[in-house]
Amino acid sequence: MIFINLGKMRKKPEKEAVGDATKMMEEFKKRGINVLTWYWTLGRYDTVFIFEAANEKEALKVSVDVSEWVATETLVAIPRQEAINLL
Questions:
Q1: How far is residue 42's CA from residue 73's CA, in Å, rounded to a whole number?
Q2: DSSP calls for 60-81
Q3: Alpha carbon distance 76, 60 (integer Å)
Q4: Using CB atoms within 10 A of its CB, is residue 2 exposed (0-12), middle (13-18) or buried (19+)?
Q5: What is the pTM of this model?
Q6: Which of 37, 25, 36 is CA-nearest to residue 62?
Q7: What number is the average pLDDT over the span 22-37?
Q8: Mind listing the domains of the chain with CATH numbers?
Q9: Closest to 39 (Cα-Cα) out of 71, 4, 67
Q10: Whether residue 59 has pLDDT greater than 90
Q11: Residue 22: its pLDDT value, please?
Q12: What is the mean pLDDT of residues 1-11?
């Protein structure tokens, strides 16, 4: 399953926190989380994190793991063709 995690930073990012986030991504990989892309953005959200996880429970763990640094909203992404097939 593909998830889109929209994040709002809780505090100003520092270089140390960026290093911690890089280490966290390695831990996610060990748990079977496939990071597809990660952006810092301008506008309503500060980050957009797109990843694959086995299920919603694993995606929830990602949000809990980053909750110290980022307030998140996570969306389930359904590929366009699959959604069309549901019509």
A1: 16
A2: HHHHHHHTTTEEEEEEEE--HH
A3: 11
A4: middle
A5: 0.86
A6: 25
A7: 90
A8: 2-86 (3.30.70.920)
A9: 4
A10: yes
A11: 81
A12: 95
Spatial CA neighbour of 71 closest among 11, 2, 3, 17? 11
Q: What DSSP line would sit under the chain, residue for residue?
A: -EEEEEEEESS---HHHHHHHHHHHHHHHHTT-EEEEEEE-SSS-SEEEEEE-SSHHHHHHHHHHHTTTEEEEEEEE--HHHHHHH-
Q: Please name the residue that has the structure tokens 């110290």.
A: 68
> Which amino acid, 87?
L
Distance of CA 57 to the CA centre of its chain: 13
Q: How many Å apart are CA 59 and CA 74, to the nearest integer?
A: 8
